[in-house]
């Protein structure tokens, strides 16, 4: 699903207060996207422990800032948990009383923490949406997988989706276990493309191309190929075949990739990341 056009209003969020708990990089990207999308600054609040960061947030977005999480969360329909996973438990348990009194929709972007843990830390029976965005969300070009627990109603789905669409493309995932695959695909995915760009640049430099030119051409090739993938509508396989003439240079390179087991290597990498995601979640569950 495509994000709303910047000028289109977001009627489902009108007059619904949204509280961000944690005002770091991801919260700032989301707040910026929401305000661009037409949400009123008066409907957005943020809790952030550092005074300097609160001042920056207030100056940049003209929103209410709080040192205390409960002060920001009070009367908000949606709580966005935008703190690091390590502090999430402490943040949630301190808000359990308020969560039980208000029953907000809780949207967590913390990597790896299961919805059941969050609901439990907040006192139980809480509507929790988990989102797994990726770093390009900071540019409004994110890819996010979303999972909602059984307490999230249609309105809660809409609220959470609107927030995450502010920073890019979103898809709902039915089975929470599949969030580990989303993490391995799109969460960690930008690093795979950086690795490929790095390797392309190094290979071209090793063959004599000046580094600045190799870097610029590798980066622009990633951007152009990515745009074709998104904008053309054809599959990656079709696009690859279109640029591969029999006996040509691309065919020679692809043969070298195949000989080196590229597809199996990518499958191994995604498998390793999926497994690691599940292990980290299990560790967090054990520590809970
Ligand atoms: N960045 C990404 O690309 C990305 C992608 C996927 C998921 N995520 C998830 O998004 C979440 C936020 O990541 P981020 O990159 O935005 O991190 P970040 O920039 O470090 O933001 C976290 C913010 O929370 C604040 N904070 C710390 N303790 C707090 C508390 N007890 N109550 C309220 N706020 C508190 C921090 O303040 P201080 O600076 O004072 O510590 C910081 O401003 C993480 O859970 C991460 O897993 C991020």
From TrEMBL:
Gene3D superfamilies: NAD(P)-binding Rossmann-like Domain, ProC C-terminal domain-like. It catalyses: L-proline + NADP(+) = (S)-1-pyrroline-5-carboxylate + NADPH + 2 H(+); L-proline + NAD(+) = (S)-1-pyrroline-5-carboxylate + NADH + 2 H(+). Its EC number is 1.5.1.2. GO terms for cellular component: cytoplasm. Signal peptide: none annotated. Pathway: Amino-acid biosynthesis; L-proline biosynthesis; L-proline from L-glutamate 5-semialdehyde: step 1/1. SUPFAM superfamilies: 6-phosphogluconate dehydrogenase C-terminal domain-like (SSF48179), NAD(P)-binding Rossmann-fold domains (SSF51735). NADPH binds at residue 69. GO terms for molecular function: pyrroline-5-carboxylate reductase activity. Residues 17-112 form the Pyrroline-5-carboxylate reductase catalytic N-terminal domain. GO terms for biological process: L-proline biosynthetic process. Its main location: cytoplasm. Residues 176-280 form the Pyrroline-5-carboxylate reductase dimerisation domain. It is an enzyme of class 1 (oxidoreductase). NADP(+) binds at residues 21-26, 82-85. Catalyzes the reduction of 1-pyrroline-5-carboxylate (PCA) to L-proline. Belongs to the pyrroline-5-carboxylate reductase family. NCBIfam families: proC (TIGR00112). This is Pyrroline-5-carboxylate reductase. The lineage of its organism: Bacteria, Pseudomonadati, Pseudomonadota, Gammaproteobacteria, Lysobacterales.
